[in-house]
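FIELD: query
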Amino acid sequence: MNFRTTLVIIILLVGTAGAYFLFFQEPMDNGSVDEKPPIHEVYGIARDSVQQVELLFADAAYQNLKLVREVNGKWQLQTPFLANADDEKVKQMLDDILNKRVKHTLEVPALTQYGLDTPNITLSLWTDGTHPAATFFIGNKAINYSVYIKEKSEAHIFLIESSALDDLTKSPTDLRDRSVVRFNPETVSNIAFKLENVGSSSPSSIVNCEKRGSTWHITSPIAVKADAQAIERILSELLLLQVVTFEADAAETLAPSELTKYGLGTPRIHVQLTDTDQTYALDIGSAVPTEIGSPRYVYVKSAVSRQPSAVSKETLSTLAADSQYTEGPHSISIVRDDIYRLLNKSFFDLRDKRVIDFQRTATNRFVISINGEQDTVCTKGYDNIWELQTPTGKIKADAKAVDDLLFGVDSLEAIAFVESPAKHLQTYGLAAPAIKVAFTQHGEETPTTLLIGDAADDETVYVKAAHSSQIARVKRALIDKIALGTAWLRDKQILNFHIDAAIRLTLRNEDAEPVTCQRLGTSWRLTAPVKEAANNTAVNAIIYELNNLMADAYVGRNPIPTDDITGFSNPHVQLTVELRDQKVYTLQIGNQPDTAGYYYARLQHEPDLIFLLNAERVPRLKTTLALLRTSEQ
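FIELD: result
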């Protein structure tokens, strides 16, 4: 290498180093090398104090953005169009830029070489007042993953991480809230549904729901209590629905032909929600054409009014008019057709379908009256044990059956309402109802009564609450159980005695000679047809089985099956047990009913109280003399 070549290389190296220090490095004598504070500390701008954001882009591929925080704290996009912004995304963008640390500060004579005379991005932040608290120009990238930035009112420039360019390079869609409608479900006080009967000459159906305190009511087409759970479910699911694609903004400016293209000229469904300070409108249009088997979507138009509007029957007829919503954003978007299923609600869907309203947990007495015969009376004692009043005295009630009755009636829902108000009770068997169930609650003298009338042809029964004008049809499964009265509600344990109290046992199989056993001390002895020691294990097993005997279900009294049907005139098995207190119980097991797996059974002293006994128990009760004799004989 000659001297001239060496000199050229040295000059190039010196030039490169000079350019580096000129353009990319802060002079050591003018720069700060101490603590590197974040932007929000340097300029005293906390993220939560920002009320307005403006982003201007030099690149025409990006749209300038203006974001404004509303009074309720929510962010709204105002430029390039009016739309709700995603609060979390806006907060994240502000955090990203305001938490950037100032790497170096530079005093420079000109801005051109740093890209700050025509910045790539201009960011203006307002905290209060009419002027921005700070305006930042963001210029060219530097080395070491940095970018030049300048605050408008200051002479110096500084360096921050170059990721600031990505943090701020946002499109409207990037920052837009994808909620179909943004509202606070806790403050919604009114919901109106308008459904067009597409393809029918019938007029559109309109249902208006109003919240009074914590209770929802339907005010139109008739005044009834609303199904609060159904409405709350609609609100909660609607809040979660997301836009798939934003189709068009400033929808209020679209020509009628454009709206018709989306099925929004006459929307299939119009819903209006009103909360404390805003009214929201949703129109559900036609389905978006998709390939067979693809997810299904619909066109939805949304609009917001900044002032709540009173909903009357007159305004309900023109709910879809855009003129009501000139203050807020209008947009057309594509949403999964879940929204159609969610909002396609009829008057019946939204009304309270409970037939009777009472507090089952506070109920301490109920009476079932069937065809004017003896009432079934059930009361709850201080020990919370339910007892039935019978002609022979109190008996324990089946706790599960009582719970099933109380819960079943409390949650009994109409599958249809027949007439409102109820004028022709006799038509439905409710002028003189076949069954009445009266529930008395703690601290109240007047019971709440359910009236049960005739059966319909579709496996339903007509019912109404005594205080209500509404006649409903309900499924008959619960009603059939109520019609059993005591037979359903009594304790299913047939006998309840101490096994050591049994002193004599007589067993008779059909067409066989009876076998009798007598207790002597702790042992059993056969006394008929032979007199000898008995097989203690075999006898005790039968005593245990009798003591634990449970009915699967009691047979109703309407009508009571005859002995020819039940087989009690010649029982399949008959067992008699005599106790030390001289009580005697005789269990009779008859024929098998049409229901497979059971036998008819009863206690002889209660001939009308017939129950079904599981067939698996019968072999354990049926025995022979040979089985009861000891192996020593």
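FIELD: remark
The longest strand covers residues 134-142.
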